[in-house]
């Protein structure tokens, strides 16, 4: 067979290229459809955009290394209260040994900012401190505040953990004056 004759005969080239292209398109299309069916290409939850401020006050009648942190939602998206989790270290109840707190009264049940509503890591924003609603769930909206019992060297993080899904996002964090 001569080289010149081989270069001039291209009868089988077009059908072979056509079949390869059709198979490639079919494989790509099947992969895209499978990713959506299996949930791999589904939509991701949007992280809420909100601003929080933190203020530490040592106005308790206890040890000078303990006080109250007031966290305020300053604006932005409304967030379900049970999706906001406080994490970190330095949580305490500065009124635990306070002689002015009546026996049998749990300071975290008190609605005022005089008592801390949160005294341990891993607790959610309390529903009684959330004045909005998203569906049937209380929501934290601009102007809502909550108090946390804190040591002066605290390191707190406010984390958004949605009920559906495995994602989370840190929305705000704060360290104490002695951290």
UniProtKB/TrEMBL annotation:
The organism that produces this protein has a lineage beginning with:
Archaea, Methanobacteriati, Methanobacteriota, Stenosarchaea group, Halobacteria
List all membrane-crossing ranges.
Answer: 12-38
Question: What is the native source organism of this protein?
Answer: Halorientalis persicus
According to the lineage, what is the superkingdom? Archaea
Pfam families per record: Pilin_N
Q: Which residues form the Archaeal Type IV pilin N-terminal domain?
A: 11-86
Q: Which UniProt keywords apply?
A: Cell projection, Cilium, Flagellum, Membrane, Transmembrane, Transmembrane helix
Q: Is Lyase set as a keyword in this record? A: no
Q: Where is this region: Disordered?
A: 88-131
Where does the record place Polar residues bias?
Answer: 109-131
This chain's protein is named Flagellin N-terminal-like domain-containing protein
Q: Give the InterPro entries listed for this entry.
A: Flagellin/pilin_N_arc, Pilin_N_archaeal
UniProt-listed NCBIfam families: arch_flag_Nterm
């Amino acid at each position: 067979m001569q080289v010149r004759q081989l270069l001039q005969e291209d009868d089988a080239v077009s059908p072979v290229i056509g079949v390869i292209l059709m198979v490639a398109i079919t494989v790509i299309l099947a992969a895209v459809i499978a990713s959506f069916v299996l949930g791999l290409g589904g939509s991701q939850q949007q992280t809420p955009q909100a601003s929080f401020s933190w203020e530490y006050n040592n106005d308790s009648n206890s040890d000078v290394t303990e006080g109250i942190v007031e966290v305020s939602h300053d604006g932005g998206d409304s967030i379900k209260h049970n999706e906001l989790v406080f994490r970190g270290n330095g949580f305490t109840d500065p009124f635990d040994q306070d002689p002015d707190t009546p026996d049998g009264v749990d300071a975290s049940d008190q609605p005022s900012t005089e008592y801390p509503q949160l005294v341990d890591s891993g607790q959610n924003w309390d529903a009684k401190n959330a004045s909005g609603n998203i569906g049937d769930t209380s929501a934290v909206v601009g102007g809502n505040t909550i108090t946390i019992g804190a040591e002066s060297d605290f390191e707190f993080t406010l984390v958004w953990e949605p009920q559906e899904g495995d994602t989370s996002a840190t929305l705000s964090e704060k360290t104490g004056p002695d951290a």
